[in-house]
């Protein structure tokens, strides 16, 4: 044992020692607000830990949680982990066979489930080999075939509201989360106390997200999705007021909650902010007045949206770049000295990028052959990452570890460029990039440009097999305007790209299929295109 | 070896990867400014590491440095440490026999010395048992008896400007610093890579010092004094422009440098800011325009000074509480949500305190018998501290470790109170507190009140032995005004304190003796008083 182990128990202790009076507010399924303090939460977390002891859960055992963002989910972030167990957060939108596989692989012994997801749990329950007990996150058990089942309030009721937290080894797992890859089975990432301690320290940085005691933090991003990007932990460590929106993530609901609770920091994927902009355009009110900054990630928001949030709503968008394997944070945008001297347009061009590696994170670019790529802002390479909070390997996947790690660096599968000042730009996924005649064409850059064209709603670009060039781009476009045709789009793209980058085929569709995490499902698109068209011929 | 060791080498690599164009500016002994970039510094740090290899310095060996703040001292912060050696920073103002003892105890093999301190080195050289080589921090060697001796530029000249830094164990010592206790021999504190990594992560926090790439950071505090409070490290990790003032620490020189280099953050002990205020009062210029915040520590600044810096100079003072053993940071003031709602006067009353423990640091209060003390803002107790960057024990002092550590907590020897919101207030040193009839009288509180009286320049209060009460306070006062007498001071103190707190004796003196770190030398005062007066009689 070290003289000070870096464990997430320290977050909880700091909150209750220094900020016990600060609030955690949850919007419940019936739309009502539940509010209590860190002191209240702490007592129930202690009760939960005692209940797990009493149940017979051993050190290192795991529990599943299938829930949206609310105070009981928050309690589950600490009760199991701080008492030496691990919480496996599951995405209820996964295909059923994925859910079954990951819960069985994780050997979860209890499953905590929101009333709204009881049906999902019922659908997989027969195939769950290790789950012994279901706990419904409510004060009563609904009509259900789950068995044995108990409600959460009864589960923790009557236990002592103090707990003697064990000194845990900082390399102990405190949580497990699976990547929702678009190809193949999800892969588990074990989160370890030390790594989340360091990840959380970085969240408080003025050049990262600057999470502060002064903030009211609302993770709209689901708590089952990569530690809710870490905000439930950093909010706790820094004593921020926390606002948990439950399933109420529509623009109107998010805007109302921001206004009602004076939220200063809200974190969500770009689509939430795109929809928010549309909503605000049609609304008379100014609900974002308290909002100081917007944190987003997962994919790059349009530069126009970033400018609008900064200049009109006065809540600048900060980009984060990360991934499940990295807890998730690796890099982020912030206004550097250099940017302050740039004209607006160039400044937004930099802010649109993935940003600067966070303190402790390191990024390098490599060719497919493993050679270094120059940091010229132009030459793309695969992004390799290191950081003291990045995973040390996938759970029970030695073959994936073999291919994903090299000299202590994690091969992210993302393709990027780095400019002379260290700004990282994500150009593509290796899986999505189009290898045309030995060169890479970025499907992402084509998509961004297509969406920028007037009258285009959505656009996805895939790699179609080609008999000469190996692969060529094919575009799927959702239009909002009948005047859009292939000729006008080709003309639009030619303003930015060389002729050989232009898609060989444009398909106009009503919608683009999405994955459970609302990314374009390019795998489905590609499979379907190949089934229908086969290999593209030479003369296209 | 871990997959990512928390070493200070990461600071250097980040600076050169991302902020290579940012500047380090040093004011040299002749008053001229030396400026170069992190890229330039990096090349010379690599050369220095090669020079140490070539010299035959082994992993773990130590070098002494006796220097003020400038770029060569900065290079010595990284070259030895990142190549696996350790830098022992020495305070040239120590008594000669202390210097000899600590350099011998540390077994330093090289001694790097400023030309200005060559005489000091010469005075002790005959007694240094392990120093083999002197290196003068200049481009030529002055007339000196030091032998063998070489100038720094010749020492590093010609070596490769790249270096393959070793992967070091994060618990390896990178620096050694001795406490300058007012009683007894200095005790050495070994700083370890992991601990400074964590200390530095906390420096970037918006609720701590918020060190940012946007900042221009000037440590006025000497770099031989507890890692320059950590600013040379945090400035590097976050890519701040660094300004090193050399020996030019007069109010006028500091003000000029702030203005010339657009310094945003300056760190120095309170006396610097007290003198700065007097200087600015008599000056026509407004040199602090760029200054965003002032960091201070070591002793509490007067509330009136804090208010003036915030409201007149628009550079609020943030208090830090720490010590050599803690690298040094433990707690700091910041504007919490609660303070925003308080009237000005109460707000400044909180800002004057030592503040809130930094994320990861923990503070508790204990009675002399080891019993918990309530957090009521009123009851004093000894401050015990834990943090992941606090030392794990004194260097070669098993008996001091025995008495200074308890259950993993460090007994600071400071007496404090903690209020219900966790604000720590330093009331006294255990050594300085006056034990009168079983109660503690705070010498520090009496001093603060005396200084607040019109016409009082300095005031020190000591504990004099008393035949009945065990100890009683005696005040030494420097007046700026002939109208001040004992009666007026007693009247002034009675506005705040009970009668039994008032000093039994007031002595009006021309000056108060100071230690080498500019603290009141209460030990000398006390020894002299006892020699002259003996035990105080009953009727006083």
UniProtKB/TrEMBL annotation, chains A, B:
The keyword Lipid metabolism applies. It comes from the Archaea. Residues 445-519 form the AMP-binding enzyme C-terminal domain. One of its GO terms (biological process) is fatty acid metabolic process. GO terms for molecular function: ligase activity. Gene3D superfamilies: 3.30.300.30, N-terminal domain of ligase-like. It holds the Pfam family AMP-binding_C. The keyword Chloroplast does not apply. Residues 21-395 form the AMP-dependent synthetase/ligase domain. Keywords: Fatty acid metabolism, Ligase, Lipid metabolism. Belongs to the ATP-dependent AMP-binding enzyme family. This is Fatty-acyl-CoA synthase. It comes from Halobellus clavatus.
């Amino acid at each position: 044992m070290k003289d000070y182990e870096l464990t997430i128990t320290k977050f909880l202790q700091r909150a209750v020692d220094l900020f016990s009076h600060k609030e955690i507010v949850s919007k419940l399924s019936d739309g009502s607000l539940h509010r209590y303090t860190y002191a209240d939460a702490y007592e129930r977390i202690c009760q939960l830990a005692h209940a797990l002891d009493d149940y017979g859960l051993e050190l290192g055992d795991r529990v599943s949680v299938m829930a949206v963002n609310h105070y009981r989910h928050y309690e589950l972030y600490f009760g199991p982990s701080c008492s030496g167990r691990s919480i496996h957060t599951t995405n209820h939108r996964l295909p059923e066979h994925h859910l079954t596989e990951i819960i069985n692989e994780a050997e979860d012994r209890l499953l905590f489930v929101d009333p709204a997801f009881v049906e999902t749990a019922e659908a997989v329950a027969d195939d769950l080999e290790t789950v012994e007990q279901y706990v419904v996150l409510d004060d009563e058990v609904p009509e259900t075939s789950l068995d044995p089942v108990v409600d959460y309030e009864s589960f923790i009721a009557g236990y002592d509201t103090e707990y003697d937290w064990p000194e845990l080894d900082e390399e102990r797992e405190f949580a497990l989360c699976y990547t929702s890859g678009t190809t193949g089975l999800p892969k588990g990432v074990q989160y370890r106390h030390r790594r989340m301690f360091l990840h959380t320290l970085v969240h408080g940085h003025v050049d990262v997200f600057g999470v502060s005691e002064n903030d009211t933090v609302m993770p709209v991003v689901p708590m089952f999705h990569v530690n809710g990007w870490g905000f439930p932990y950093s909010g706790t460590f820094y004593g921020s007021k926390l606002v948990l929106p439950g399933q109420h993530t529509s623009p109107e609901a998010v805007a109302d909650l921001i206004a009602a609770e004076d939220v200063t920091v809200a974190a969500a994927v770009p689509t939430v902010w795109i929809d928010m902009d549309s909503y605000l355009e049609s609304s008379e009110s100014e609900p974002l007045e308290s909002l100081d900054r917007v944190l987003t990630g997962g994919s790059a928001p349009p530069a126009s949206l970033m400018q609008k949030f900064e200049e009109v709503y006065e809540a600048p968008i900060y980009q984060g770049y990360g991934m499940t394997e990295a807890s998730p944070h690796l890099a982020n945008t912030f206004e550097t000295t250099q940017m302050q001297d740039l004209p607006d347009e160039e400044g937004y061009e930099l802010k649109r990028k993935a940003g600067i590696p966070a303190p402790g994170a390191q990024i390098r670019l490599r060719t497919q052959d493993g050679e270094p790529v120059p940091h010229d802002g132009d030459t793309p390479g695969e992004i390799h990452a290191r950081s003291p909070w990045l995973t040390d390997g996938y759970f029970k996947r030695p073959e994936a570890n073999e291919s994903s790690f090299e000299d202590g660096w994690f091969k992210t599968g993302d393709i990027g460029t780095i400019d002379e000042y260290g700004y990282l730009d994500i150009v593509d996924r290796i899986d999505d990039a189009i290898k045309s005649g030995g060169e890479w064409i970025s499907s992402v850059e084509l998509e961004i440009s297509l969406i920028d064209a007037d009258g285009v709603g959505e656009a996805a670009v895939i790699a179609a097999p080609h008999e000469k060039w190996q692969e060529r781009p094919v575009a799927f476009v959702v239009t909002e305007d009948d005047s859009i045709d292939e000729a006008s789009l080709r003309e639009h793209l030619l303003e930015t790209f060389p002729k050989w980058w232009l898609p060989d085929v444009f398909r106009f569709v009503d919608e683009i299929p999405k994955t459970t995490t609302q990314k374009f499902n390019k795998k489905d698109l590609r499979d379907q295109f190949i089934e229908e068209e086969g290999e593209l011929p030479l003369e296209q």
